[in-house]
Every structure is written in structure tokens, then in C-alpha cells.
Amino acid sequence: SFSKPAVLVINELLSEYLKKNRNYFSKLRLKKVLRCSAKIIVSSQFVKKELVSFGVQPEKIEIIHNGVDHSLFYPHFDAAKDGEAVLIQPFSIKRPFLIYPSRIQHPEKKHVELIKAFNLFKKRTGLPHKLVFAGSEGQNSDVVHQAVLDSPYATDILLTGYFPHTNLPELYSSSDACLFPSVCESAALPVLEAMSCGVPVVCSKAGAIAEIAGPAPLFVDSDNIEEMADAIEKIITDKELRQKIIAESTDWVKRFSWDKTVERTLEVLKSCVQQPETENNQQ
């Protein structure tokens, strides 16, 4: 137990944590820590539901969404946006392109399904778009690399590896769309960052994404290759739809800021400090 009131902040899904820590004692230790905490701050309703199913009391859990740094993530309409290539050291990425900003992890992140949808999109349309995976290597990334090699459009698929966070706004802003088919998200921060940069988003409804992304994006079933290919084509070619999604996204994302996140977090911390004093006064 903790000698002082302890507040836990959980941004990862317990199911993901337990996959990495499979032994019995890890699960037992985790249950004890959760039980002894005064409050638990989570990044979404989805994470809260998972904690409740794990036996945590609902009244102990506070949902505080992550924020977006709007001083960094905003539409970067500069020469790179209008030019043929985006020059972000050490990369020179030829436009037009689509971006998936996520750790390369199979199967939860659905890279392989997206590659198949991209293949179908390219075959149908013949459009010159490239697909950029911006993210570090995760579990089973070799499966994703093999899917790229097997693609008839392998030369149009780029894996950047780790991409500096401060350079992401320019990469987002220079893309034609952000694709986010992951089904294991607890916070979906890249979706909000893309929205802040004025980029239309195609994403799955799974995990916390629908809750965080709101009504603005184009939602798809990440296991339905045809549906994803259709959505990619639509988000690129339907100008009216693009403008509608961008406008709704820009409005929606205003409600997410780190100032609000910090303010709510401090409120939870203060409530934990004040609680014992109240109980002592009543005695």
C-alpha cells in the first residue's frame, strides 16, 4: 500500500500491458497497485471500461483526455505544402502522400490491412499517391515489412522509422490525408494532431478512437479492405467531402488542450489531498 494518497495515470490498455507481462505475479502486483490507489486518471472512456472489467471501482476512475499542443500542431501552409517534395531531415518525401503515424506493430495496428487497401486503391485509380508509415518498430514489425515487399506498389510505400515529434506537424500538413486503422488505441492522440493540422482523417471506430475523434472523420471497418480502399479514394477525390471533414475536425479539436488536461489533473490531485482532512474533521 501507499503511505500517501496515490494517483495513477494510465494511458495504456491493460490488455496490452498484460500481453507484455504474462506471468501471474505481474497481474497480481498490478491488481494490488490499482486497489491501493486513491484515484486513477485514464485517457478515455474505453480505458475506464477495461479497468472496471478488471475489477476496479468505477467511482475511483477519472477520465481526463489528452490535449493537443496547438502552438505546434496547426496547418503549416508553407513552401513544402505547395512543392513537389517535403524536405524534413533526413527525409525528402515526394507529394502527394497519405500518412499513418503509428508504431509498426502487427496485428493490432492493422498495417497489413491498410497496405492491401492501398494496393486496391492504386489499382483502381492509378493515382500517384504514396503511403508513409511514420513510427518506430514494434512487435511483429517483420510481418509489416514483408507485406510492403510483397506489394506491387512497394516503391510507393515508405517506412520512416522513428519520426521526431516536432517535425510531425509539417508532415501532417503536407499529406493529403491521415489514415488510422488501428484497433488498440487508448488515447488516439495522432488523430487529434492530424485534425489540428487541417488534415482529413480516415480511421477505425475501435478502441477509444470514435470517442476521441468525434463525428468529423470518415470511419471504416479496418478488416474490410474494400471499404478502406473506397474511403481512401473518397477522401482524396471528393473535394466537398474533404472540406466538410476538415471544417468539422478543426472545430472539434478545439476542445482538446494541455491546459485543460493539466487543470483537470490538478483538481483530481487536490481532491485526494483534501479527502483525509475532511474525514479527520468528521471524526
Quick structural gist:
The chain is an alpha/beta fold and 283 residues long. The protein has 12 helices and 11 strands. 46% of the residues lie in helices and 16% in strands.
Structural account:
The protein has 283 residues and is an alpha/beta fold. Helix content is 46%, strand content 16%. The protein has 12 helices and 11 strands. The strands form 3 sheets. It has a 6-stranded parallel β-sheet, with helices on both faces. The protein has a 3-stranded parallel β-sheet with strand order 1-2-3, sandwiched between helices. α3 links the parallel β2 and β3. α5 packs across α10 (225-237). The longest helix has 25 residues, at 258-282. The protein is globular. 36% of the residues are buried.
SSE map:
Layout: E1 7-10, H1 14-20, H2 24-36, E2 39-42, H3 45-53, E3 61-63, H4 79-82, E4 85-88, E5 91-94, E6 97-101, H5 111-125, E7 130-134, H6 141-150, E8 157-161, H7 168-174, E9 177-180, H8 189-196, E10 201-204, H9 209-213, E11 218-220, H10 225-237, H11 239-252, H12 258-282
Parallel strand pairs: 1-2, 2-3, 6-7, 6-9, 7-8, 9-10, 10-11
Antiparallel strand pairs: 4-5
Helix pairs in contact: 5-6, 5-10
Helix-strand string: EHHEHEHEEEHEHEHEHEHEHHH
Q: How many distinct helices?
A: 12
Percent strand equals: 15-25%
Quaternary structure state of the chains depicted = single chain
The residue fraction in helices comes out at 40-55%
Report how far the terminal alpha carbons are from each other: 23 Å
Strand order of the largest sheet: 8-7-6-9-10-11
| Low-confidence runs of at least 5 consecutive residues | 277-283
What is the SS-derived class?
Answer: alpha/beta
Largest sheet: 6 strands, parallel
Question: Which word captures the global form?
Answer: globular
Number of strands: 11
Give Rg in angstroms. 21 Å
